[in-house]
């Protein structure tokens, strides 16, 4: 005891909380990614696909998909004692894009998930984050049975800037997803540091 206070244990650390978006096309694995890594039971707003949505929901390549996110997915992961990430999975269909502005408010960065079978589906997400100067990383979700391409080939097909990270990942695998999230945080912090240097010089 020192001055009547026990030294047992350290005072609780107040963690820094960061917001990361998970975006991409319909059926690319956003809900799966959030669920694979979240330490809490993810909040999901999924609805069953219906005949009414068939004309607007292109399920070619993801014929086994029976539900879709209509608002967002939410999860949380503690990377370190002092660093917690809140994950927000965005809806993939165009008719729900009006929610993206709300979800992107205050985001540190974003993951754009891509599926090489439907690569064009992630163009809108790439364009969205580029236009708003939100740092993002492209994660190519390696589906079973899908053709594998070199990272540089995918980068060229997406016309990505040289400084945008692109990684291969498995949205079902916790460790793979953690690597993606660490990459987003590092990329966003590096971009933030570059901007601060530009302002002071």
UniProtKB/TrEMBL annotation:
Keywords assigned: GTP-binding, Hydrolase, Nucleotide-binding
Family: Belongs to the GPN-loop GTPase family.
Alphabetized Pfam families for the sequence: ATP_bind_1 (PF03029)
UniProt keyword Nucleotide-binding present: yes
Record-given protein name: ATP/GTP-binding protein
């Amino acid at each position: 005891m020192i001055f009547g206070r026990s030294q047992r244990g350290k005072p609780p650390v107040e963690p820094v909380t960061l917001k990361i978006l998970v975006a991409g096309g319909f059926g690319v694995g956003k809900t799966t990614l959030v669920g694979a890594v979240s330490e809490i039971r993810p909040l999901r707003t999924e609805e069953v696909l219906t005949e009414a949505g068939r004309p607007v929901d292109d399920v070619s390549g993801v014929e086994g998909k029976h539900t879709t996110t209509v608002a967002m997915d939410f999860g949380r992961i503690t990377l370190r004692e002092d660093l917690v990430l809140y994950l927000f999975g965005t809806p993939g269909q165009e008719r729900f894009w009006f929610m993206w502005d709300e979800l992107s408010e205050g985001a540190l960065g974003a993951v754009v998930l891509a599926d090489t079978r439907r690569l064009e589906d992630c163009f809108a997400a790439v364009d969205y984050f580029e236009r708003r100067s939100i740092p993002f990383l492209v994660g190519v979700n390696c589906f079973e049975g899908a053709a594998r391409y070199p990272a540089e080939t995918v980068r060229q097909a997406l016309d990505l800037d040289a400084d945008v990270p692109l990684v291969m990942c498995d949205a079902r695998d916790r460790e793979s997803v953690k690597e993606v999230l660490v990459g987003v945080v590092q990329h966003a912090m590096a971009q933030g540091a570059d901007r601060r240097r530009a302002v002071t010089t």
